[in-house]
Amino acid sequence: MNKKEIAEIKKNFNDDCGFFTVNHVVTAFVDAEKNIKCKTNQLYNTIPQDESELIMINLKKVLSGSIGKNLLEYSFPKDAYLEGGAQPFLYATLKSKLLDEEAVDKFLNEIVEKMEYVSTYTIFTAHCTYSVIKKNKNDDFEEDSDIDYNFLITAICPVNLRIDGLIYNEENNSIAKKESSDRIVELPTDGFLYPLFNDRSPDVNGVLYYTKNPKKPNTSVVNELLGCEFSMTCQNEKETFKAILNNVVGDELDYDLITTVNEKIQEVVDQNAHETEIPTIDDHKLSSILWEAGVSQDKLDNLPKVYESAVGDKPLTAINLVEKKTVVTAPSITVNIGKDAVDKVKTQIIDGRKCLIIDLDDPEIAVNGLETTIK
What is the SS3 assignment for 19? Predict the structure, then answer.
């Protein structure tokens, strides 16, 4: 799914859209011992509005964040199609429309058994229908619906126990310690959408995984529950990219080259900001970037082998490789440099000593928040 397709589903994922319907909603509370303590299966339009609004917020959150970071698309591997595999299991659950209690129980048990979780949590799952409206050559919507996109969306939300704290007691007009404990359902940490919405049509051969924390995703959801092979996190991609640079460029790495490569990858991101597909960097694109940054051809000859050894034939997500600020570190010293000031910093050897030179347009600077001047 590209940015445009995700945005279309997210935009129409609301009660006011005439082409979108939440049909059935299943909720379940799971304790720390992996016991399903309670379960509901209701028609969405019978749920009280104050509750349905909160459920909608949690489900819609599964479609939020950046592609390649919070939202990761996976195609099912061959073994996921075998009997008992994740693909036929999800497909059967989709076809049940959550109307078959036995299928619903099996679905919930599958989540509980295969997903690792550090606390109590709530499962929200909904069967939804989006009537896909045709588009003409000018990318404008036509009147008639072409197909129905039926999908399951699941949100896994942590439930935290809150006991301590002071509250305002209206009865006796005082501030006092809270006497009872509350279990608060928070926004989802994980979730998934099945099937995919590719080329504005259902694609039952893949699934979209959501993680709140792209640096520490719950890999058990992807590997065990969804039957796919987890790819690198955004942090893994960045570290892998750094390793590739080190192995290829080696002793040619310096401040200017590092910052130039970062700027050129940022240019790739900016140039594709309005494209539906997220920009990526493969070995050919990286070779061009490094050549333009001044890396010698002798070094670049090693790039294909180093790249293949690190990531195979998979491209890296460009936005995951960009450093938002340049950080220069030395023992007991750290200098943070904004992207607009990279050219004001340089390394230089003065009287045999390695120095970091910072050009200051204004002689007035601040040290620990106190204004001072350079004399």
Answer: coil
94 in Cβ contact with 151 (< 8 Å):
yes
Distance CA 166, CA 291 (A): 62
Q: Are 71 and 210 in contact (CB under 8 A)?
A: yes
Helices then strands, counting H and E runs in the chain, come out as: 11, 20
Instruction: Give the other-Cβ count within 10 Å of 277's Cβ.
Output: 10
Report the distance separating Cα 124 and Cα 153, nearest Å: 8
Under a CB-based contact definition with an 8 Å cutoff, are residues 253 and 246 in contact?
A: yes
Neighbours of 132 (CB within 10 A): 19
Q: Which of 84, 117, 119, 93 is nearest to 26 (CA)?
A: 93
In tens, the pLDDT along 251-292 reads 889 999 999 999 999 999 999 887 778 899 999 999 999 999
Contact 2, 208 (CB under 8 A): no
The β-bridge partners of 207 are 74
In this predicted structure, the answer to whether residue 164 has a pLDDT above a threshold of 70 is no
Q: What does pTM read for this prediction? A: 0.80
- The rounded distance, in Å, linking the Cα atoms of 142 and 125 is 31
Q: At what angle do helices 303-311 and 283-293 cross, to 10 degrees?
A: 130
